[in-house]
């Protein structure tokens, strides 16, 4: 499908409808995604959000857009300050450490690094300048060194969330601060408290409120008018609602974001993920036992706007699916090794054409990638249909070559299919830089870790089972196999 005929459609939270994407500047996209508050290891809810927007980033690049992708770190925050006090550590140092841990997780999950990754602590001047504009335009007021945005001064408050001011009854969502003109007014600047990091400002020493940070940084890197602003659904209110209000208050009609995108929540065994419920998982806890690419595959298995339910059984299925992909690629590479070594030259296959079956499979795979991703990033359909058919056909060609049916046409079919599968996996962020053999070994190592076994344990079990089979002790043989399966280790009997 020609690139110029592809129309990307995305759901816009602001308009509550799916729209054809049109960038403000032809061929260029400016995108801002709200980042983490780095006070601890990131959890799988973070993984869900940043994998989703990584798919968007990758697909925009695939469509040949020049993308300026900005994702921030909110490294000045109450949670960071509390954690730093617990550890007896400087808050900025603590947040810096967890920023690096987050970046490692993102790298493990194959998320491409954004063009800019600003930190709040590095943009105080821009934040103060924006607050000053809001105040000058009459949308904010000061109380004892704090600066509050007056929601009553902004009639359009509630544009994206649908929240009405009268719904924000005093004391229901938050403790009442009698100094505020309206309980829903939110802080742009907070007066300094003992032991907290603070900066000089026209209103006294203090630090910024949460919402103003993203407004100031997005404006600094992308201007006040850009294409896409995204984050989790939990950010629609109050964070993004407040961003819209203060953006318009500071810049008026110049402030405009075309598309607001939000990803769905993660539940654990159909319950909300929560530390208090004991079902809270960090990315690192999951990837210690399962390959990071298995977690990415699992997340892509649900549409980004739908809730995704994490469970051991589901991550096991995802792990097996990715293992199957890489085993197929590995077998394909092995089967084609004669061609790669020059036994069969490119000259010999020059006149051979790809079979209609293989060509149809290749076309369908590329067409499905483009059609489904253009339809608001529907990744599950790609994983479950044309990709599976391509892998099945690859395995059939591999078996033909193993049986010495080494027709030049089969070599060509398999080679072309392999290239197309890898190209699709690359767009989905599922193609690793390691060799297939290395990836398979990484999967095996994690499977052994989950089973609390070593390779020596497996070899002993295999020897014991072989002896049992030899002695016709089939009940014993079956029990050994069953015990291994219960620990996530599957044995295959070849040639029996």
TrEMBL record:
Keyword Protein biosynthesis part of the UniProt annotation: yes
Gene3D superfamilies assigned to the protein according to its UniProt record, in alphabetical order: Cysteine-tRNA ligase, C-terminal anti-codon recognition domain, HUPs
EC number of the protein: 6.1.1.16
Residue ranges constituting the tRNA synthetases class I catalytic domain according to the UniProt record: 21-318
SUPFAM superfamilies recorded: Anticodon-binding domain of a subclass of class I aminoacyl-tRNA synthetases, Nucleotidylyl transferase
A single GO molecular function term of this UniProt record: ATP binding
Name of protein: cysteine--tRNA ligase
Species in which this protein is naturally found: Nicotiana tabacum (Common tobacco)
């Amino acid at each position: 499908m020609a690139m110029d005929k592809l129309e990307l459609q995305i759901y816009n939270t602001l308009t509550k409808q799916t729209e054809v994407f049109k960038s403000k500047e032809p061929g260029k996209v400016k995108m801002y995604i709200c980042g983490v508050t780095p006070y601890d290891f990131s959890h799988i809810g973070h993984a869900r959000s940043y994998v989703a927007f990584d798919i968007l980033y990758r697909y925009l690049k695939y469509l040949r857009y020049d993308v300026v992708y900005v994702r921030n770190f909110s490294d000045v925050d109450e949670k960071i300050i509390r954690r730093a006090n617990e550890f007896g550590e400087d808050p900025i140092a603590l947040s810096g450490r967890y920023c690096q841990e987050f970046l490692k997780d993102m790298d493990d999950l194959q998320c491409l690094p954004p063009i800019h990754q600003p930190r709040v602590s590095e943009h105080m001047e821009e934040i103060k300048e924006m607050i000053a504009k809001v105040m000058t335009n009459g949308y904010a007021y000061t109380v004892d060194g704090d600066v509050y945005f007056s929601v009553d001064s902004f009639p359009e408050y509630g544009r994206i969330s649908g929240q009405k001011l009268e719904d924000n009854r005093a004391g229901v969502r938050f403790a009442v601060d009698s100094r505020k003109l309206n309980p829903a007014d939110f802080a742009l600047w907070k007066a300094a408290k003992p032991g907290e990091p603070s900066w000089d400002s026209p209103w006294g020493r203090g630090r910024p409120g949460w919402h103003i940070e993203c407004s100031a940084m997005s404006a600094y890197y992308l201007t006040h008018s850009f294409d896409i602003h995204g984050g989790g659904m939990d950010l629609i209110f109050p964070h993004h609602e407040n961003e819209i209000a203060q953006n318009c208050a500071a810049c008026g009609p110049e402030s405009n974001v075309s598309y607001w995108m939000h990803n769905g929540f993660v539940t654990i065994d159909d319950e909300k993920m929560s530390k208090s419920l004991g079902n809270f998982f960090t990315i690192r806890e999951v990837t210690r036992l399962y390959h990071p690419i298995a977690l990415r595959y699992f997340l892509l298995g649900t549409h980004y706007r739908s809730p995704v339910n994490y469970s051991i059984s589901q991550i096991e299925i995802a792990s097996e699916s990715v293992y199957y992909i890489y085993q197929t690629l590995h077998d394909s590479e092995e089967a084609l090794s004669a061609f790669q070594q020059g036994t069969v030259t490119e000259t010999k296959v020059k006149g051979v054409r790809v079979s209609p079956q293989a060509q149809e499979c290749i076309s369908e795979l590329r067409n499905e990638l483009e059609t489904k991703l253009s339809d608001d990033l529907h990744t599950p359909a790609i994983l479950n249909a044309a990709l599976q058919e391509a892998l099945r056909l690859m395995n059939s060609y591999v078996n033909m070559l193993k049986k010495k049916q080494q027709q030049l046409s089969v070599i060509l079919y398999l080679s072309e299919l392999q290239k197309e599968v890898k190209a699709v996996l690359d767009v989905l962020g599922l193609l690793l830089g390691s060799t297939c053999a290395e990836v398979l070994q990484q999967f095996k190592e994690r499977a052994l870790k989950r089973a609390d076994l070593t390779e020596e344990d497996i070899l002993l079990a295999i020897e014991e089972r072989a002896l049992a089979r030899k002695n016709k002790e089939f009940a014993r043989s079956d029990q050994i196999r069953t015990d291994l399966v219960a620990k996530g280790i599957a044995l295959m009997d070849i040639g029996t």
